[in-house]
Amino acid sequence: MKKALLFAVIGLLSFISFGQTDVTGSVKDSQGTPIPGANVYFKNSTSGGTTDFDGKFSFSTSLTGAQILQISYLGYTTVEKAVTLDGSPIELEIVLQEGGNMLDEVVLTATTTFRSQKESPLSITSINAKDLTKLNANSQADIVASIPGVVADGGGGEGATNIFVRGLPSGGQNDFSPIQFDGLTLAGYGLSSTAGDVYAKVDQGVKGVEFVRGGSSILYGAGSTAGIINYISKTGDTNDENIINIEVADVGRVKTEFYSGGQLGSADSNTFYAFSGWVRKDDGPLDFGLPSKGYQFRANIKKKFDRGSFTVYTQFLDDKSQFLLGLPLDGDSRERIAGNDGETVYQLNSSHLANTSFLTPAGEYRSPIEEGIWTRGFYAMSVFDYDLGDDWKIKTKVKVSDYINDFALYVAANGKANTPVTLNDYLDIQGFPGATNVNAAYVGGTALGSNDRIIDNLHVDRNRPITDYTGEFNITKKIVGDVVEHNINLGTYLAFSEGEDNNYQFRTLTAFNNEPQLVNLSFTDAGGNDVIFAQNGLTNRIGVTSNNYLSQERSAFYLTDEMILDRWRIDAGIRVEKQVARRENGGIGSAQVYDDPNLTSALQNVNFATGSFTRAEVSATGFAASLAALYNINDNLNAYANMSKGYFFPLTRSINVVRNDETAGTYDVENIYQYEAGLKYGQAKFSGTFAGYYTTLTDRVAIQRLNYGGTIGTVDGIKTVQDTKTVGVEASWDWRFIDDFSFNGNFTYQDHELRNDERTVLQSGTVDGVVLVEGTVTNGVNVGKQLRRQPKVLSTLRLDYDNSSLDAFASANIRGSQFNDDANLVELDGFTVIRIGGGYTIPFEDSKNLRLGFSVFNLTDSQGLSEGDPRAFAQATAGDFFVGRPILPRRMFFNATFTF
């Protein structure tokens, strides 16, 4: 009913039309060169637009009387122009001078009025399209790793980036910071643990990205507690713009990106288009015989009315990327070690597992390991905004998305032999000392060498299709008084998501090499029985380990007021949201599929879905409130403070169903309180921010997946409920110390600890020699410890040179030491990732240009660890080996960008 009402409102309002004032003009630099993408907005309002490829702008406004038009672009000094709006067309020519600061950029996310970062009473970082192109990003981590207070782990390759914000103990991915495209999340946020960046792929059609942290972000983002990552799409304008970007890199990378935007039909059609995407193939970042490949197409069409616009966005995605987890390293240095062939082992993923298949009670199962993280699907979204007159405005957003995400997760060094061992040691570990007639050979026939080492591994195939329907409607009203101007926003958010969470698993025995070969193993045991322990490299055909159906409904209402006084800006708002979540757990049985007395039971028996289900439904209501204030001390300096109470719904997949309509424990929202105060300073040569913050999180629910070995495999092992606190300070700066030269960066220091730590065993089993009994609850064991995977020190330092023809940069991302576990027994050393790059732009006639550029990631080839063993219950801290995940090795990129 709510969805029907929302669509009805959109339909009725689409026929409303009123007149207003037309504002047109152009924006150029001091040399007369047009500036595309400049922000042109009336101060303290929602009226404005951006310049097109030729630096021209055109929009309409219902504002009247004396107004201030603000024109800004990153790297240029902001210009303010006084105009009088009386219904007569206005045409302006604006010239911007270089030397502006990073705080001049206008904020588009989590706000009702258009305002610069300097005028916003919360922490915001933006990255524009030009810098995104120069970055040659491997993953989402490369894009957000330079943001203050943010830890971004991209050691897994191109997908599934783990993002931690201001010490909040996320289980990984982007739990507390939803990823959006143009203001709405792309898939069912909060349904399962699938990382949002598998759906969010950047191309030349992205205008920029904004990361809003804390404060009012909790009011606008679905379930956001820490912030919002919002990618903003380009839309076409009155002049055509075309971009082709070709990127190549070592380890077999070839990628072509494109963008085309402009006007459809005649000059007075007021219909504009934008079309972008990419096609790629990549053997890296580490080559193990399974290349990444795929394509993306995105498009939008905008129709402008006298008082508003209607825009339709869409994306089609079919992309396969590879994912990397930890591997055994040297126990002392924790650096990579040599394999059987004497070559350094960078990973243990193997193309030899491609086309692995085995029989199950439901027929043949074929592993999609060669597909890696395979995401395919689409989203379609419409945005309608309209000026109703008398300072009333409405905006509606409606989105549907449908994706299938298959995640081939190869967990190397996972089993009883988690480190490389010789054949005799392996047989002892597996409980077969004194075995005779041992036959160990690589699949294909070659016998193992006497010193060859082998290792256990686990492969998990996750199948997670997801469908999502989302709608948002808000109405705004500006009320101008003698002392204060109110910008009131009343909105509602409705969403329905459904999906599946299906897992298949199997275990393998391989050699210890890069892209290791599979190993067959047979012998006669001490009892005289012939045993086939590994067949075609498989040691355990586990089969189905989860068969779940998930769905959730969200409904929210929010009310905000952005108040403007002489020297004050005050934001206040509340949000109430209810979630109803359902989980259906499919029954799993085991059957003997293979009838061979020499096979181990692990090879003969295969788990299967029985067709029975236990179902449960839970619900919870969350309440959020935010209050923020900014005071203009002088033209260059602002002081601000904000406080907020937010919430996060535990993942639907974390519901522990015990019987129909019954769950183990309660389903409560996770509450977070954030307090922040700081300064923002900006003038032509120097700009910067300084902030202190305090955050607490209560009732944080996380599920730790553990390797129980045997027939159990890797399953949801332990449920933790934690309370945390973090105290931190962060600073960012941009100093243009010489013309065309700037030094920018940020520094974060934070102190954090666990205040409560309750653990419940979800399934019985033995892991790392410890017997865990289902239902056992322990409390307070790690209270006072530092949060895992959260360094105390983070910093980014960067030098930039850009004279419009020649550009170059050198940056260092610095991360302090961190603990890999809640008990603080496993400490990982800090590390620094250095990146350099540069380019030369060749101008042609009619504003055409060609930029030739390069960049080098991890210049010094640092081997720092982003994490240890994520599935160990109690990771060993001493010995010959240490299982961990190193950051990605050095890689060089070249690209050519033609703009015409």
From TrEMBL:
InterPro entries: Beta-barrel_TonB (IPR000531), Beta-barrel_TonB_sf (IPR036942), CarboxyPept-like_regulatory (IPR008969), Plug_dom (IPR012910), Plug_dom_sf (IPR037066), TonB-dep_rcpt-like (IPR039426). Keywords: Cell outer membrane, Ion transport, Iron, Iron transport, Membrane, Receptor, Signal, TonB box, Transmembrane, Transmembrane beta strand, Transport. Pfam families: CarbopepD_reg_2, Plug, TonB_dep_Rec_b-barrel. The keyword S-adenosyl-L-methionine does not apply. Residues 1-19 form the signal peptide. It is found in: Cell outer membrane. Transmembrane segments: none annotated. Residues 357-859 form the TonB-dependent receptor-like beta-barrel domain. It is a multi-pass membrane protein. Residues 117-228 form the TonB-dependent receptor plug domain. Belongs to the TonB-dependent receptor family. This is TonB-dependent receptor. The lineage of its organism: Bacteria, Pseudomonadati, Bacteroidota, Flavobacteriia, Flavobacteriales.
